[in-house]
């Protein structure tokens, strides 16, 4: 019962995000945005879709139970969801599941993007570990964490290349380090 509620919450969230992404895609393309990475996007969708199939199968078929450390994992999950909302809302209409770039658009430097180039990918990487561990689905955690690293090793360079081609992305990053926040900058 707990697994079903947990899974339903995540799936509902992902379906809602797909509607948001589709609306954002229409908005951006109507303003001249271009799409990149179509060939790898199919594999990204496949990985994310199979994640839920394998996860559900592992939990039900192997009769997995909630983890003994579930309160700790739940806290991490809640933090990732908070981070996800922060990242997506910071990008606003520019957020998408696809690589869609509006030429000459301003680079988003608010929210978690003040600190990291790709905070949502960090969040997804954590989710691929935490979500399966919540119900002791170790196979799912291992396999899909590995697949996620593989797809992101293709996705991130493709996204960075597209942003460099159509925006001032590279110049913006020469101004500051977005991997380590410079908390002493004002001093």
Automatic annotation (TrEMBL):
Transmembrane residue ranges: 41-62, 69-87, 121-154
Pfam families for the chain: ICMT (PF04140)
Keywords: Membrane, Transmembrane, Transmembrane helix
Name of this protein: Isoprenylcysteine carboxylmethyltransferase family protein
Organism encoding this protein: Robertmurraya mangrovi
Superkingdom to which the source organism belongs: Bacteria
Keyword NAD among UniProt keywords: no
Subcellular localization, as worded in the UniProt entry: Membrane
Bilayer topology annotation: Multi-pass membrane protein
């Amino acid at each position: 019962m707990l697994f079903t509620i947990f899974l339903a919450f995540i799936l509902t969230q992902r379906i809602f995000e797909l509607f948001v992404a589709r609306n954002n895609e229409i908005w951006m393309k109507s303003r001249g945005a271009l799409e990149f990475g179509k060939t790898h996007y199919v594999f990204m969708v496949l990985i994310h879709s199979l994640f839920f199939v394998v996860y559900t199968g592992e939990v039900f078929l192997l009769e997995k139970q909630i983890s003994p450390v579930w309160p700790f994992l739940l806290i991490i999950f809640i933090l990732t969801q908070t981070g996800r909302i922060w990242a997506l809302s910071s990008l606003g209409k520019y957020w998408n599941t696809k690589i869609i770039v509006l030429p000459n658009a301003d680079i988003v430097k608010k929210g978690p993007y003040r600190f990291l180039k790709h905070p949502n990918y960090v969040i997804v990487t954590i989710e691929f570990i935490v979500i399966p561990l919540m119900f002791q689905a170790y196979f799912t955690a291992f396999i899909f964490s590995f697949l996620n690293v593989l797809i992101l090793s293709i996705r991130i360079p493709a996204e960075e290349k597209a942003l460099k081609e159509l925006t001032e992305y590279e110049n913006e990053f020469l101004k500051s380090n977005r991997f380590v926040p410079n908390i002493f900058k004002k001093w």
